Amino acid sequence: xxxxxxxRHPTEEQSAANSAALRxxxxxxxxxxxxxxxxxxxxxxxxxxxxxxxxQFKVFIQxxxxxxxxWIEADRRLRxxxxxxxxxxxxxxxxxxxxxxxxxxxxxxxxxx
Length: 113
Fold this sequence. Notes:
Layout: H1 4-7, H2 12-46, H3 48-51, H4 55-111
Helix pairs in contact: 2-4
């Protein structure tokens, strides 16, 4: 079980995963924020119901869209990072097996088999 002092300092892998998720959250919030803003403008022009909403509720709707976008994109980026780490580990494992195979074949050639 990790101690409190060891859990305060994240590993390189944790830092990289946090960074990927943070970048995803920022990008997702920006994308969905722009989409929410466009929908708010359309709603203001078209809908009298939307026009009569309070500014607080309009801000809530905008922030909800940005939060949703940040959440979705952060999750997507984190899953992509996890896939990349697993593929990298698999590549290294295969590379080690290949090197071992080359070493065994090289020894057999030297023995004259």
